[in-house]
Amino acid sequence: LYFVWPEKHRYIWLLISSYYFYMCWNAKYALLLLLSTVVTYLCGLLLNFFDQCKQFDANRKKWKKVCVAGSFVVNLSILFFFKYFNFAFTNLAIIAGRVGIHLQQPVFEVLLPVGISFYTFQALGYMIDVYRGEVEVEKNIFRYALFVSFFPQLVAGPIERSKNLLGQMRNIEEIKIWNARKVTSGAILMVWGLFMKMVIADRVSILVDTVFDNYRMYGSTELIAAALGFTLQIYCDFGSYSMIAIGAAKIMGFTLMENFNAPYFAKNIRDFWGRWHISLSTWFRDYLYIPLGGNRKGRFRKAVNTMVVFLVSGLWHGASWSFVVWGGIHGFYQVIGDALIPFRTKLKEKLQINTDCFSWRLLQTMTTFLLVAFAWIFFRSNSIMGALIFIKPTPWVLFNDGLYNLGLNRTEMNILIVSIFILVVVDLIRVKKNMTIDSFLFTQNIWFEWVVIICLMFMIVTFGEYGPTFDAKQFIYFQF
């Protein structure tokens, strides 16, 4: 219907579709989405009002800050209640118990609204952009509501910026529909996303869940395999959703921001965060790190700001100390990495290490990958203690059949290995040629393009993990 809808009112149909999409999960929670939308919309109008009225000249900045603060309080209060209340009260009760005060915790059995962290941050980002004067206030509430609720990226990102997505929605009548190249490109991205999710992520999750759910039973080989498996799973699971979202939007003529760029080929942790969950890492950079002072107030303040950002990033992912520790580990990596730059530079000069060669780049990539994989253990574990037990030293056996007793038989393991090889090839193309899979295929002969697409579709249908005997896995980032 979108393709035959009157051009000027396409956004109305997309808005209806987006709310229907969200309400299919839980109709009542669409009210929270609407509340966040209305609050930030009205805040934007107020900010524009303060800018236009001369009577606010003397105290304009103060009133604008009050307006922004009020919007933050409302939106973050909703987020806190549904996502963090039980976690905060539990920790408060523990602290109170240490000093002899007993607190009876109220029981709130509420379902976490899917995607609440994503659409809340997207709406708050718009409000900050209006406050800074970086984007014009949107006066059409339906168009703004579509920006907040656009269904391809509503529940798991990318977290879009108003300058990009809202700007396209304001000119929706100028979007050329049935653009053959965009439709084909979007479809290829969706197929690749389905391959990453159904063939790789859901398959390796069987091994990962088997070990993480019973980690006390296994030795080092199985634990390392599970840790590396989750490193692969989290990338293919989350990256696949972003790929499908970007592809679906592209078919309709919209361009969403890139969210992943071959992250496991990063040369250091800073490079990793320039490639992983790009929409969130840049959100924290622009709306938290830079306002805190960034790197403009000395090395110590930069280190503090970095740790704050990563600790908050960990908490954003979930109400658990294991997420906070995961964020803290990445912040620690960055702080230590910055502090050791002079030492590393002198060491390379003294040892005459050639840094312009394949072996050095390989060492950088492997070191970064292992550091990231180690941190993922805390992300995946249910508790900090569980993560610490998971990484304990245990008897080590490399060459046995233990890996084939973790939920995947030899056939399934071989399918996984072939799929990983395909993933590595696609990411290598991304790194070496700076091309996503769709743009790379467009540079090839038509027969090659179709062979690749048909093979991917065949693998999805044949080797995808679905059906009555398989417990279908929802996207991991739906819980955030």
What does this entry look like structurally?
The structure is a single chain. This protein is mostly helical. It has 18 helices and no strands. Helix 1 crosses helix 5, helix 5 packs across helix 6 and helix 10 crosses helix 11. The longest helix has 39 residues. It is globular, with a radius of gyration of 24 Å. The model has no long low-confidence stretch (mean pLDDT 88).
State the gist of this model:
By secondary structure, the protein is mainly alpha-helical.
Helix and strand arrangement:
Blueprint: H1 10-23, H2 30-52, H3 60-98, H4 116-132, H5 141-149, H6 162-170, H7 180-212, H8 220-251, H9 269-273, H10 278-289, H11 299-317, H12 321-339, H13 341-351, H14 358-380, H15 384-390, H16 410-433, H17 437-442, H18 446-463
Helix pairs in contact: 1-5, 2-3, 2-4, 2-5, 3-4, 5-6, 7-8, 7-16, 7-18, 8-14, 10-11, 11-12, 12-14
Total helical elements: 18
Structural class per helix/strand content? mainly alpha
Helix-strand pattern: HHHHHHHHHHHHHHHHHH
In what range is the share of β-strand residues? under 5%
If you average the pLDDT, what whole number results?
A: 88
Radius of gyration: 24 Å
Main sheet record: none
> What separation lies between the terminal Cα atoms?
31 Å
Helix content: 55-70%
What does the overall shape look like? globular
Catalogue the unreliable spans. Answer: none
In total, the number of strands is: 0
Observed structural traits:
single chain; 480 residues; mainly alpha; 18 helices; 0% strand; globular
